[in-house]
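Record type: monomer structure entry
Structure origin: computed from sequence
Chain ID: A
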Amino acid sequence: MRLKFFATTFLTLALTAAVASADVTFSNVVIRGSLSTGATFATTTSDIDFSFPDAIVGDPVAPRRVGSIVITYEAQSDDPVNQDQLALLALGALSGSGTIYFNEVVEDLVNPGVIASYNVVLDANSQLPHVATLNFSRPSTHVKVKKTAILTAIDSIDQQIFDLASIALIEQRFVPEPAALALLLAGLPLLRRR
């Protein structure tokens, strides 16, 4: 019984330490582009979220039919990260000719080179929110991320069609290298046997 208590306590402390050491720090955040007015960002220990109050093109804001958002930032962690999860949340929905062209490039700043890239074209037939996982070609403790979003909503010939493209939020979560966490979790079945 006493051994189980110590093992449980150790595992809890080790898991807490592993999670705590996996914190990601974000820096050098730059948001620019014709649709970046009023854009803000917020961070937690593993994610960075970007909000866009003015990222809309199409019929509601005609004649603005095309616009862009370009985001760059750095992310650092004591533990290597090996992937990130991306969520694009459109305000309402894409409609008519509304289209979002999105590109992301992740560059390793420790061993220079691109370790992940992602492209997607979203239109009125796409399911929103759009969520993707980018697997890095190798883990890194310091990366630079560049996101580019181009929104278009060209006026349809049929005036009954409502043309709209908008992004309200881009969420990004970085996932730490699972090796240390996997070793800790492997100890759980041992506790159950005792």
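Annotation 1: The longest strand covers residues 66-89.
Annotation 2: The chain has one domain: 25-176.
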